[in-house]
Design goal:
9 helices; alpha+beta; elongated
Length: about 375
């Protein structure tokens, strides 16, 4: 009874029988007097002619015959309706069940880690919507699996570099190639700091993306925050021979947010600008306000970005130049963390560039 073709067949049979019986019952009810009259006349004739011979017996047979024929006809029609209903139910159920069977097989394949499975979009509108939703889900899972694999490979690569340095230096010390002095200890300590920073960044990013990261919200004066951060970075920009310019409004916009995390966002954007801006270049921090938003942008005159890279600059470990290492290109987590922090503040961040060697600009929008 749980088979689809059985249920659909019974539904068709019951429905058609109902549609057939209702007019039949109505007809018999309307003509009940005529039928009763015919039987009464036949009974009177039978009483006057008990032998059943002659024209009287013929009339009696003619009167009784239609009633018997009607019952037989009804039975034949009901049987035919049942057979047709079962046949139509089987055909209909096969058409409905085929896409569902394909979906079930594809779902089993996805459950077996075959994320390349897709099903053909056909059938009724509802079935097509299910097929489209399944294909979208499978595509998202395949993409997420690819990102996970790449992320694990990137993490292994990022951890391997400082570990290799530490292991090699310690081996050299054991073999008396290097002396165990403060200079060598400082080098090893620097590598451990890089490991600690990478692990901390990954931990923060995981919490942010899982929406389990708490912000210490308070009123933040963005103009004051920018001035404080720029004062810290001025010696670094001077050493790199890069001009740092501030473009701040006369009004001082105040937003609700976590001052430490907003400072971290600005630090990441400035570090990114320093890495991509050559000597003699310029970096501008601009702050402006709209009706209900505040706009904080960091613009540089550096290497710029091709349009093909713009959608991915906020992905984990993404580097435009794949040949850059951690020392020259960072961990590839700064922009990803900045994006997650901005989203946690209810804002958005966008990257724009006119092309290679045309500089780039990163703009943060946060509600007032």
């Amino acid at each position: 009874m749980n088979q689809m073709w059985v249920r659909i067949s019974l539904t068709y049979v019951v429905l058609v029988i109902f549609l057939f019986l209702i007019p039949t019952v109505v007809y018999l009810t309307i003509h009940a007097d005529e039928i009763n009259l015919g039987y009464s006349e036949s009974e009177e004739i039978a009483e006057h002619n008990p032998t059943g011979a002659g024209p009287t017996n013929l009339f009696n047979r003619l009167v009784n015959y239609p009633r018997i024929d009607l019952v037989k006809s009804l039975l034949r029609i009901l049987f035919s309706i049942s057979m047709i209903g079962i046949l139509v139910g089987v055909i209909s159920s096969r058409g409905l069940a085929a896409p569902l069977n394909n979906l079930a097989e594809a779902a089993k394949a996805v459950g077996s880690q075959d994320l390349s499975q897709r099903i053909e979009v056909k059938g009724s509108e509802e079935v097509r919507e299910v097929a489209i939703a399944f294909n979208a889900m499978a595509e998202a899972l395949e993409e997420a699996d690819g990102l996970r694999s790449n992320m694990l490979a990137d993490i292994a690569h990022e951890l391997r570099t400082p570990l290799t340095v530490i292991q090699g230096n310690l081996r050299a010390i054991l073999d008396d190639v290097y002396e165990l002095d403060k200079v060598e200890v400082a080098r090893l300590y620097d590598q451990t700091r890089q490991l600690s920073r990478l692990v901390g960044d990954l931990h923060d990013l995981t919490l942010l993306e899982a929406k389990q990261f708490s912000l210490n919200s308070s009123d933040v004066n963005l103009s004051e925050l920018i001035q404080e951060v720029s004062a810290i970075y001025e010696p670094i920009f001077e050493d790199q021979e890069i001009t740092l310019t501030l473009d701040l409004p006369e009004s001082e916009p105040v937003i609700p947010g976590d001052s430490a995390r907003l400072t971290q966002c600005l630090n990441n954007l400035l570090n990114n600008a320093i890495r991509h801006t050559p000597k003699g270049g310029e970096v501008t921090i601009q702050l402006s306000t709209g009706e209900d938003k505040v706009f904080l942008s960091v613009k540089d005159s550096g290497a710029g970005l091709d349009s093909e890279h713009l959608p991915y600059v906020f992905d984990r470990f993404y580097r435009v130049d794949q040949d850059r290492n951690r020392r020259t290109g960072g961990s590839g987590l700064g922009l990803a963390i900045t994006h997650a922090l901005v989203v946690a503040h209810g804002g958005t961040i966008m990257a724009a560039s006119e092309g290679k060697d045309q500089g780039s600009v990163f703009t943060i929008q946060i509600p007032l």
